[in-house]
Amino acid sequence: VLFSVDGIDKETHERIRRGVSFERVIDNILGIIKMRDGGNYKTRFIVRSIIQDSNRDGWERYYAFWKSKLYEERNDMLIKYNLHSWGGAVFSKDTILGTKRDPKIEKQPCHHFLENLYILADGTLPLCHEDALCAQYADTASNARNRSPIEAFNSPIRRWMREVHLAGRKNIFSICKECTILYS
Question: How confident is the model at residue 53 (pLDDT cuts 50, 70, 90)?
Fold first, then answer.
């Protein structure tokens, strides 16, 4: 289970994640960790933060707080990513990177697309988490309501897109060309 918490305090988190209650988010996360530990369930938790100017200074406190709540022996993780472009939907690649493009990263297949299947609340299957805002690359022949996750993950369109990624040509897709997640 992945939790996105972008601040160590109410003001920072709610400035970034507008419309949410910091207290409710923290209480829910701590509650489910307690439930997992009490029932000795095998659930793995990942707490992540998207680092940006408004929360960068709080990382040490954030790290100390969450490290004390998670357990490495249960394969829990605490991770951070740099602010990214949401495949060009929020920021352009130039806004995030300027001219600092790495040719190796530009040809590297994206593990987010290759290894994961993202399912939206209505069953739509976007290309990846970067496509979750608009689902412009959603496999329209597949939906979590009419196909099993395995069938959807192995649909003809997704197999073809994986071949393109593995051949180092992912940038033929505009969302991949504008994406900065691999730079995080």
Answer: confident
